[in-house]
């Protein structure tokens, strides 16, 4: 059970830490345990004393990481648990949270935990890695479930009102024809229209030449969210008719991961985060893969902080654009689409014909569908 809401003075004592104990009094029972759990984590903040916030005590009790996880899950509600676990890994670098098997098996799968697994999987022994893979699989399943629906909707053909559909999906619902077919069941006294058979329109299929999509994904540590969503996005696009998808990860080296696109879990477990960045080298690799520039799209997912020759990057992007290839630079491809990127390099790419922005995966699916239909 979660911690009961403490009295106002105890809440202030819990917030301010041991420095406020003389004024507000001590803590007992579960509230004291909650204070110890918060102190175990946030007591590591080197800026705390300067800010005048919580201050560490000199008590003898020191929690181990498994004990801390157990207390956190016992004392706090789910949204607080997720924040504490996220801060432990991302803010204070407590990698044992995801490299200890006993601890890992207690954690609730989340995107935050997935990020932590990808950043620390090289530290895991085989047993921990197997548990981590299960977490990756569950989080990927959740993301893919949502994203696959967005991709299907974006790439569905336009509604053909001349033909009815047996697929009773909300996106196919024909409101006007449904109302017309139901007018005989209008009740003027109750002012209600009773619908017996809702009408759903079919969708026309466009027969187009095959398009080639190349996703170039920056593996630098700051791009971990975009790496996750790029992998799932590629899997969703993999079996679309008329689309050939290639996924390429890069840092200072380029790795073609296309053979694993249909299995995003395996793909993510192969990604190596961190290291330098040679974006121009990745773009050069994409140039060598393109057979029909007029029907090719290169999506470069990167923060544009070029570690090598930025001028070479600009030249290669310009060559792609001039050949007829459409180039989209994404400073973020994730659920929030809030990027931090090199604006100067991005502006230079825009000047030579690339489009640059930040998108959610659903927005990218809609953008791709629009380009292909055009």
TrEMBL record:
Residues 210-369 form the VWFA domain. SMART domains: VWA. Transmembrane segments: none annotated. Gene3D superfamilies: von Willebrand factor, type A domain (3.40.50.410). PANTHER family: OUTER MEMBRANE LOLAB LIPOPROTEIN INSERTION APPARATUS, OUTER-MEMBRANE LIPOPROTEIN LOLB. This is VWA domain-containing protein. It comes from Tahibacter harae.
């Amino acid at each position: 059970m979660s911690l009961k809401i403490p009295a106002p003075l105890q809440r202030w004592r819990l917030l301010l830490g041991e420095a406020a104990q003389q004024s507000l009094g001590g803590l007992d029972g579960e509230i004291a345990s909650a204070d110890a759990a918060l102190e175990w984590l946030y007591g590591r903040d080197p800026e705390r004393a300067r800010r005048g916030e919580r201050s560490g005590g000199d008590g003898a009790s020191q929690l181990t990481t498994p004990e801390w996880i157990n207390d956190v899950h016992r004392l706090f509600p789910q949204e607080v648990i997720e924040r504490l676990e996220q801060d432990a890994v991302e803010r204070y670098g407590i990698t044992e949270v995801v490299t200890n098997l006993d601890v890992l098996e207690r954690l609730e799968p989340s995107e935050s935990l997935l990020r932590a697994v990808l950043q620390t999987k090289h530290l895991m022994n085989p047993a921990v890695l197997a548990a981590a893979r299960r977490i990756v699989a569950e989080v990927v399943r959740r993301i893919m479930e949502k994203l696959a629906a967005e991709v299907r909707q974006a790439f569905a053909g336009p509604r053909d009102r001349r033909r009815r559909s047996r697929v009773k999906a909300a996106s196919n619902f024909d409101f006007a024809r449904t109302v017309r077919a139901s007018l005989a069941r209008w009740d003027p006294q109750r002012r209600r229209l009773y619908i017996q058979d809702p009408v759903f329109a079919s969708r026309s299929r466009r027969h187009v030449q095959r398009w080639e999509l190349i996703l170039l994904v920056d593996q630098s540590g700051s791009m971990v969210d975009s790496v996750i969503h790029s992998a799932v996005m590629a899997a969703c696009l993999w079996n679309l008719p008329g689309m050939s998808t290639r996924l390429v990860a890069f840092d200072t080296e380029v790795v073609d991961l296309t053979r694993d696109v249909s299995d995003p879990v395996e793909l993510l477990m192969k990604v190596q985060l961190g290291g330098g960045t040679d974006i121009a080298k990745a773009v050069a690799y994409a140039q060598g893969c393109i057979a029909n520039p007029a029907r090719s799209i290169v999506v470069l997912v990167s923060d544009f902080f070029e570690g090598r020759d930025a001028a070479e990057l600009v030249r290669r992007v310009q060559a792609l654009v001039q050949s007829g290839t459409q180039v989209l630079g994404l400073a973020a491809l994730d659920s929030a689409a809030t990027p931090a990127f090199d604006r100067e390099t991005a502006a230079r790419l825009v000047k030579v014909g690339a489009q640059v922005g930040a998108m959610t995966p659903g927005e990218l699916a809609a953008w791709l569908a629009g380009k292909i239909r055009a």
